[in-house]
Design a protein that fits this description.
Blueprint: H1 5-35, H2 50-64, H3 73-102
Helix pairs in contact: 1-3
């Protein structure tokens, strides 16, 4: 089955949207730790430890509810999904062009 450019673009966009949505709560905590906008768990003062990560996730849920883990996700998706989809499309096109120029067939057809 041959995939069209639109198919490749959509696959790239969906893959990045899923990856971003799944990892977003941890990215948020990473940002909080990096820029120091938090109070460390008094029981464990080690910055970046698993206990502090879980503590910060818990604090975010307590303060904003479960949807607080995804606060700001829309902006992040706008920032990353289009870029990733375009990069995926360009990669596929460049790979196909390279194989054509070299006179090789792709190992698997799209």
């Amino acid at each position: 089955m041959k995939l069209s450019s639109l198919d490749v673009f959509i696959i790239g966009a969906v893959a990045k949207a899923i990856a971003t949505t799944v990892t977003y709560p941890l990215q948020t905590v990473q940002s909080i730790l990096r820029f120091g906008r938090h109070r460390l768990n008094p029981e464990n003062r080690t910055l970046g430890s698993l206990r502090n990560i879980l503590y910060l996730l818990h604090q975010r849920v307590r303060r904003f509810g479960i949807m607080g883990l995804y606060k700001g996700l829309e902006a992040k998706l706008l920032q990353t999904v289009l870029t990733a989809a375009l990069m995926f499309l360009v990669y596929e096109k460049l790979t196909a062009a390279t194989f054509t120029v070299m006179g090789l067939k792709r190992a698997h057809k799209h």
